[in-house]
Amino acid sequence: xxxxxxxxxxxxxxxxxxxxxxxxxxxxxxxxxxxxxxxxxxxxxxxxxxxxxxxxxxxxxxxxxxxxxxxxxxxxxxxxxxxxxxxxxxxxxxxxxxxxxxxxxxxxxxxxx
Amino acid sequence: xxxxxxxxxxxxxxxxxxxxxxxxxxxxxxxxxxxxxxxxxxxxxxxxxxxxxxxxxxxxxxxxxxxxxxxxxxxxxxxxxxxxxxxxxxxxxxxxxxxxxxxxxxxxxxxx
Lengths: 113, 112
Hints:
Chain A has no helices and 12 strands. Chain A has strands at about 5, 10-15, 20, 25, 30-40, 40-50, 55, 65-70, 75-80, 85-95, 105, 110. The N and C termini of chain A lie far apart (about 35 Å). Chain B has strands spanning about 5, 10-15, 20, 25, 30-40, 45-50, 55-60, 60-65, 75, 85-95, 100, 105-110. The mean pLDDT of chain B is about 90. Classes of the chains: A mainly beta, B mainly beta. Chains A and B meet through strand 6, strand 10 and strand 11 of A and strand 5 and strand 6 of B.
């Protein structure tokens, strides 16, 4: 069964900490995505990547960065965590063209205190 | 830009009731349309899809038809079960097909 695996289901971090959220897929997908999900706002795209070492900003990239050193791994980095980054973070992958849909990970619920 | 509109809910139904969740979209070109489902505590799963006008996607008793003339992709099920309780997201891809635009999600609660 194909999978997108997010390293943590729940994380609690302190304000100002540097936070790494890891995502690994075993489907040899070219495209990988990070979304955050908030009540009343749905899913919002943070960053995405079409290839190794390639990244593109999504709709809400401020306060975040990403790294894709290997095809199967896409990391989301919160440079200095803030309380307004408390959210559910979802990683997804797909093969081009995206008309085949995404495969999502189970999500990481991050709380910044 | 592209957008997807759906009601947030919650939608509360009794078991075996008929379900409709409305979805309308705005997009350039010819989008592919999707419904995703998110069960409590989990990520999103692809439920069904349609890639061109008049296509009908179906899965697990759910159906949706791509209506280009009304720019709609309404989700229907003839008889819901308690296990269908989840959040349902309408979504589309267009243009380069690389990014998905999601609706806000509709929470469905099915009571016995």
